[in-house]
Amino acid sequence: MTVRRSHLFSRASSARFRLFFLVLALLLVGVGCSGLPLEASWASVSLYGDTNQIMFAYANQVSLIDPIDGSPSELRDSDGDVRLDDQGNARTWRVQVEGGTATTFYTRPVQADAETLLLTAHEHRILEVDAASARILNGEGTDIAKRVVASPVLNGNLLYVPFSDTTLAALDKDTLDPVWTLSTERGVWASPLLLEAEGLLVVPSMDHLLYAVNPETGAEIWRLDLGGAVASTPVFANGYLYVGSFGRKLFKISLNGEIMYEFATKEWLWGPPAVLENQIYVADLGGYVYALTDTGQSFTELWSRQVAQRGIRPTPLVLEDTLVVGSRDRFVYWISRETGEEQVKREMRGEVLADLLLLDPSQLPSLSESMVVVSTLAREELLVAFTLDDGERRWVYGQ
Amino acid sequence: MDFILNPFITVLTFLYSIFNQDMVLAIIVFTAMVRLLTYPLTAQQMKSARVMQELQPELKKLQEKYKNDREKLSQEQMRMYREYGINPLGGCLPLLIQFPILIGLYQSIIHALSANPLSLIDLSGRLLVPGLGDVIPLENRWLGMNLSQPPDFATGAIIGGTLIFLVVVTTWAQFKLTTVPVAPSDDGKPNPMAATQQTMGTIMPVMYGFFAISFSVGLSIYFIASNVIGIIQSVLMGKANFRNLLPGAAAAQPAITPRTATITTSVRPTDSRAAPRRNNGSRPNSLEAGVKTKAPPKPNKTTK
Q1: Contact indicator for A3, B262 with CB cutoff of 8 Å
Q2: What Rg do the C-alpha atoms of chain B give, in angstroms?
Q3: For residue range A335-361, what is the model confidence (pLDDT) as tens digits?
Q4: Based on CB atoms within 10 Å of each CB, which residue in A41, A206, A305, B282 is the most buried?
Q5: Euclidean distance between the first and final Cα of chain B, in Å?
Q6: How far is B246 from chain A (nearest CA, A)?
């Protein structure tokens, strides 16, 4: 049969065709951006200075927060008076890179000297900041060529910078020129551990290897394959290294690079273990918490329990009778050290991935009670302080 | 999306582990597997689109005939669809089914190539086979480029440029090879179909080139692999027309010409899928087919 042909595309179908491709383009762009986190990592939360202010580094800002009430710390002059801006408002201690260049921070600032802080930005730059005024001293920063997600470590004049692509570099603190580099197959996503007395710099790498190098020269002393990516800084305790890997194992390693023994977990280990004498507490990305005893011959499991529905990244905070753990399921749990049973849990607005910070009156005399500071990925709850005993909220810092 | 995404990520990671931890090879094989699995949908979509194309003259006639009676027009159109045993959404439905798969494929590449802690921690719960975690993180460097990042022209201008060039060229080639060219109208007026086709033939490669510049190198590998496999599929199906790649192909070769050309292709009663059905399910002969047309004295152009 033959039939006459006509327009295959009327105006309407032509418009539909264009609309289809417009939708396709939007979907591809949308899909490309959705489902994946906008930030590269989680916050760094640490105590800073003589007054033990909270140094908070996340996304596009580094801020000092008052641990008493969670308010931004005010900038003060040498006489102790609050500095005011042009509108007469109190200035707060905050480093934020303005302008077109994206600059994000996930690492703990390093105190280079009494006046200067070094802030390592994810976008391969190091900013020199005047500690008193929070003013950036070197413009858009010094380019260090590679991205950084883990905090650098200072050792005298050397600044060890772990790069998230590959290698760890020891930079001259003043010039930021490389002194030596350690080549790794994959990135270094955790801070190196400096053991000055032992003359070792222990470098965890995503290439499954744990490296021990000379801190001054970078010469390799030993390397050890841990069967999975090593994304956490080893803990040095009892004369040994304790570290977990994505190979779902916790290792005890001697300082000459020998695995003493290991313990199998159900999921990847990302956070470092908490080691208290011969008691070890470690959590995995399946939401399990494990309590172990290091007998000197092996790890013996005291208990293990699935505490959270999603992974636990931060190191468990060990208290006298309780462990505090934060999870990706947006809860913070207080569990018994003895049995692992849940005692209290508190819901958060976002996932908890950063390490928990303990605020103790012994460090901060102005504090009336011990608190735990939890950081989430949610903008409205960047930091939340809970009382240590009963998990009562004390303050929230957010945007 | 997780029910699609997680198996995809698992399979991609598995391929990576068995192909000597070569991510590019894993992406290519994975793309081929997905294209193969969705082949019945692709074939059905192409066939359905072709039948709909071939019915356009008759639909046009109906539109003119019942331009003042929308209800009647709708009834007549539905009658025609019923008679030819086609679903007007038949061309879209397979596409809609494929869409989540394509999105899953695209996202799985991005997730599997996690380049930072937050995306890697997200990956941790997606691998359905526990042992696969041992190969994490996947090697994302290839020819000096990071597969999870857009091409870095500062350090690899030649390779990055070549990659984008290949994305653009293969997208263009696939579009040209799988599209029936449209000749200009005989009356000298602009042919809207030809104009649209020409516009799409330009926009699509440019759009994908833009994606290749903006998104990860891994995605560009996927685009190239998908385009090449699409071309191979159309060649194997006998739908590829290599003359379309030559300049002026639309004017120089048999093509769909609005109002004047004749069809001798699949809209015929002998075609089991395109032929209209009677109410009792049997297929009518050509005169009963419900498409009452006059064959021109001398068909000047045909398509196959």
Answers
A1: yes
A2: 24
A3: 999 999 999 999 999 999 999 999 999
A4: A41
A5: 40
A6: 23
Residue A19: closest C-alpha in chain B: B200
Instruction: Yes or no: say if B104 and B4 are a contact pair by the CB < 8 Å rule.
Output: yes
Are the Cβ atoms of B258 and A7 closer than 8 angstroms? yes
Residue B63 placed within a domain = yes
Instruction: Give the count of domains, chain B.
Output: 1
Q: Render B266-288 in DSSP notation, one character per residue.
A: S-STTSTTTS---TTSPPP-GGG
Tell me the ipTM for this assembly. Answer: 0.86
Q: Does any domain span residue B275? A: no
Residue B119 in tokens: 């995306």
Q: A189: which chain B residues are within 8 Å (Cβ-Cβ)?
A: 117
What would the pLDDT profile of A228-255 be if each residue is shown by its tens digit? 999 999 999 999 999 999 999 999 999 9
Phi-psi region of B34 (alpha: psi -120 to 50; beta: other; left: phi over 0): alpha
Task: Determine contact: A33 vs chain B, CB below 8 A.
Answer: no
Size of interface A-B (CB pairs under 8 A): 161
Residue B162 counted as domain residue: yes
Q: Do A8 and B193 touch (CB under 8 A)?
A: yes
Cβ <8 Å between B118 and A27: no
Say yes or no for a CB contact (<8 Å) between B106 and A5.
Answer: no
Domain around B118: 2-251
Instruction: Please write down the HEC assignment for all residues of B37-94.
Output: HCHHHHHHHHHHHHHHHHHHHHHHHHHHHCCCCHHHHHHHHHHHHHHCCCCCCCCHHH
Asked if B264 lies within 8 A of A40 by C-beta distance, the reply is no
B117:A189 CB<8 A: yes
Residue B47 lies in a domain: yes
